[in-house]
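[Meeting: bench + compute handoff]

Bench side (C.D.) handed over the final construct sequence. Compute side (W.E.) agreed to return the predicted structure before the next meeting so the bench team could plan truncations. Sequence as handed over:
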Amino acid sequence: MSFALAAKAFEDGVPLKVTGVATAVLGAIVARKDAGLAKVEDLKGRKIAAIVGTSTFFDIRALTLKGYGFDLQKDTQIVTATSPPDMVTLLGKKEVDAIIAWQPITDSVVFRGEGVYLIKQIDLWRKATGRAAGFPVHVCYLVHNDFLQKNPQIARDLNEAQKDAVDIWYNKPARAMEIVAEVTKLPKDVIQVAHKETVRMLHGLPDEQVETLIAQLKINKEFGFLKSDIWDSPDRIRREFFHRA
């Protein structure tokens, strides 16, 4: 599940624990190739397609505001899309200058030559936070509290399975891409680009990762996506939101 949405569900009362992580952030701002956009600041006043209700849009908006000092929702012309393919269509018809999306949509647009990466979410994170190391997370594993109490081994099992997946991703890339093709039905060449452009596959909840996640939650609270006071207390986050097997 999206890490940001997991935190939102938790503060809304869903009894869950985050037991591990899976992938680093997948988002990016992709500019139309002939739009004349060379840097993030060039987006001011331009038309950008986005699905405004997604956690990726919220994160990229918050990081741009923190890192570059302008608000994508107020200082650009946001064109609300209904789905990722809708964004691709708007870009292809030149009805927008850029899109805010995530893999593999961003990779397919770049591969076809219709767009170029203006900036990736990970680079926005590094600029906004000043953190040169560590990876903010897009996808995490979570388990319902009741199930976790009755089946405590599930957290370790999930993390071990994810570790196996990470090992395949980096050490057996051909097999990894074969599995992705079986599941997603995406073209082989798009999958190859996605594999190359993926920021980082992750597993478990090591200390450094927990610190990065706490910083991620703090930004989500700072810019209004999260509301609960728990996100101001690293000790409470470690104790109440995470489960480390």
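W.E. noted at the follow-up: The first strand starts at residue 16 and ends at 24. C.D. will use this when planning the next construct.
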